Amino acid sequence: MTTRTATKTNSKAETSVATVKPGATTPFATRNDIDASHRGQLVAILNQILADLSDLHSQTKFAHWNVKGPNFIALHKLFDELAGELAEHVDDVAERVTALGGVAHGTVRQAASVSRLPEFPAHTFHGLDVVAALADRFAAVGKTVRAAIDATDKLGDAGSADLFTGISRDLDKALYFLEAHLQG
Ligand SMILES: [Fe+2]
Question: Residue 177 Cα, ligand 1 centroid: separation in angstroms?
Answer without folding.
Answer: 19
